[in-house]
Amino acid sequence: MTTRPRILVSLPVALPGDLRAELAARFDIVDLPCGSRPADALPADVRAGIQGQLITPHSRVDQDLMQSLPGLRVSSNCSVGYDNVDVAAANRHKVLICNTPNVLNGAVADVVVGLMLCLARNLVAGDAFVRSGAWTRGPFPLTHDIRGKTFGLLGMGRIGRVVARSVQAFDMKVTYHNRRRDDEAETLGLASYVDRDTLFREADVLCVLIPLNAETRHCVGAREFGMMKPTAYLINTARGAVLDEAALIDALRGGKIAGAGLDVMETEPLPADSPLCSLPNVVLQAHVGSATHETRRAMSELAVQNLIDALTGVRPTAMVNPELWD
Predict the structure, then answer these.
(1) Where are the beta strands (DSSP E) in the chain?
(2) Global pTM value
(3) For a designed S-S bond to 235, which of 207, 212, 221, 306 qualifies (C-beta 3.0 to 4.6 A apart)?
């Protein structure tokens, strides 16, 4: 009798029925509560037969995980970011890491634009102003235009290109800084390259879109906030820890920058007693950049297909360490 490959599924919400059926037609599925460690929740004989896993960034893929799953061949991340993965350890253990780029670019760009508008036009406070009845006692305070201002991108990848195209609809000048210049984006007129310090000094809106790794952790801190205009806004939809959150809070309290729009924080979920929750010049979202029905469906489809392809000998669409496949 042929033993079917066994896979681990660990997602915060249920996998759509048709996608689960696709997996069940090929593999034996082992469900694991999101964020749980296989070594703590599964017996050794079950873990030994697991060849693939479907997870989100809530699950760590590190040396301990791979030692507890000795037969693991592929880990499919339902996310474009993979800061939950120790890629060096994955390479040592010959574990292919897949992710879901591109399908969430537009959704994240929409949140960037939404945060920019909320900050510049003070839309969140405006809603509360009307609901509270304050409008009957006088007009809402004036806000600020964004048209003609400079939008700066720290990081010019797939999402950065979509953001650049989106904010150009507001007649904004777009600049960017990246480890490598994006000649194609420049040729297309999406953005102009500037050095890192110039980006922070000149941007009226500064959007952070860089991945989190050992080099980028807290790479935007007191020095960068000190260079920004006191009228500038900072937006982060990447990962919370790329910012020095304590320095950001100091900058917001001290008027070094005008405000911040954050979809990601160092601690998630953000506790209600965080200073960020009490600052009036901050707009907060619950890490919802990709959180639309359409985008999450597309991410799930790609993550499932990556897993199926990798375990059936077909080159997956998206791989973090493709050298293992090659």
Answers:
(1) 6-10, 28-31, 50-55, 74-77, 96-98, 150-154, 173-177, 192-193, 205-208, 233-236, 259-262, 282-284
(2) 0.92
(3) 207
What is the domain count for the chain?
2
| N-terminal to C-terminal alpha carbon distance within the chain | 31
Report the CATH number at residue 38: 3.40.50.720
- Domain extent, residue 275, equals 105-284
Distance between CA atoms of 164 and 178, rounded to whole angstroms? 14
Q: Which of the residues 92, 223, 253, 268 is marked catalytic? A: 268
pLDDT in tens, 284-324: 999 999 999 999 999 999 999 999 999 999 999 999 999 99
Q: Is 287 a catalytic residue?
A: yes
* 239 has catalytic annotation: yes
Residues 109 and 216 both lie in one domain: yes
Handedness of CA 155, 160, 164, 170 (dihedral sign): negative
pLDDT digits (tens, 9 = 90+) for 190-232: 999 999 999 999 999 999 999 999 999 999 999 999 999 999 9
On whether residue 91 sits in a domain, the answer given is yes
Task: Tell me the C-alpha distance between 81 and 263, whole Å.
Answer: 14
For residue 1, tell me if it sits in a domain. no
Are 125 and 191 contained in the same domain? Answer: yes
Q: Please tell me which residue in 47, 177, 239, 296 is annotated as part of the active site.
A: 239
- The answer to whether residue 218 is catalytic is no
